[in-house]
Task: structure prediction
Amino acid sequence: MEYTAFEMIVSAGRLRRYLNACAQNKSRTLDLYRANLRLSGKFLQVICVVEIALRNGVDRHYLKSYGNNWVVTQTNPGGYLARPGCERSRATAQKAVNELGEYYSHDRTIAELNFGFWRYAFGLKEFAAAGSTLLQIFPNRPRGINQGDVFNRLGEINDLRNRIAHHDPICFEGERISTQKVESAYHCAIDFLDWLGLNKSVILKDIDFVEEEIEYISKI
Result:
């Protein structure tokens, strides 16, 4: 009865992928579905910490370069976000400012901007337009890690973040059970905290339980 009741809530179609991956074993199917929810929630907590740390690092850097309200001033003619190739980031920034309206403040704008905006700060066009200095926010960046590496690694995290936001499973590779993409994105996230010069043991204390859930899913 438990499986039938659960199926009524989440739909047979949504459970089918889990059921197939678990060889039609309904008990394992429910176990996997719940484990995926736990993993999604726990990884999202880590992503939130990384996103806040990253955006604050970028913000501090550009406050020094462009002054207060840099998000607004740099979308104006002559600003780096107004240069060719930066149209996507410029539109994102303008949308955030416009939606705040009378409640605008620089801090609120920074909080309003999405993960994609911070990722594209390391995009080829945006990075160059702003003077190619943004890697300075990573005092512990390993030798050889360049702007493209940062952009691509943030892309891995953003892809998983979007899947979680859309309630899509993150425990599959094709039709088989796999947490490989989560593991890769998770290690990228941990690396960014290290590169930013942050003590990950302190900042993620009582927050990071991703590896435990990955281990649990590996045994289902």
